[in-house]
Amino acid sequence: MIDSVFSKAVIYPQDNANLILELRQRFGLTQEQFAAKLGVTFATVNRWENRRAKPSRLALQSIRGVLEQMGESGQDLLTKYFSN
């Protein structure tokens, strides 16, 4: 179990703002709706997209999990933002 947690270590994307925006738009969600999906506030998502803050490690794990759950439709964003 612990090995699987460490094998999915979060790689911090270079462009968090675009990742958040692209993912949110792919779902067709407002910032408020996307925030609710991730369990954060609207203001948090707004700050991420406007480059005033970066997602925490936990938030990035959640975002990556959402992309993984999307299957093939999220694979391009996983590759683009989370590849080494």
Structure explained in plain terms:
This protein has a single domain (14-82), classed as 434 Repressor (Amino-terminal Domain) (Orthogonal Bundle). Mean pLDDT is 85; it is low at 1-10. The chain is an all-alpha fold. The protein is built from six helices and no strands.
Task: Describe the structure concisely for a colleague.
The protein has a single domain (14-82), classed as 434 Repressor (Amino-terminal Domain) (Orthogonal Bundle). It is built from 6 helices and no strands.
Indicate the low-confidence ranges by residue numbers.
Answer: 1-10
The biggest beta sheet reads: none
Provide the CATH architecture.
Orthogonal Bundle
Instruction: Indicate the CATH class.
Output: Mainly Alpha
Give the domain tally: 1
Q: Helix-strand pattern, N to C? A: HHHHHH
Count of beta strands? 0
Question: Quick check: average pLDDT?
Answer: 85
Shape: globular
The percent range for helix content is 55-70%
N/C terminus separation: 23 Å
* Rg estimate, integer Å: 12 Å
Q: Pairing-aware structural class of the strands and helices? A: mainly alpha
CATH topology: 434 Repressor (Amino-terminal Domain)
The fraction of residues assigned to DSSP E strands is under 5%
Separate helix tally: 6
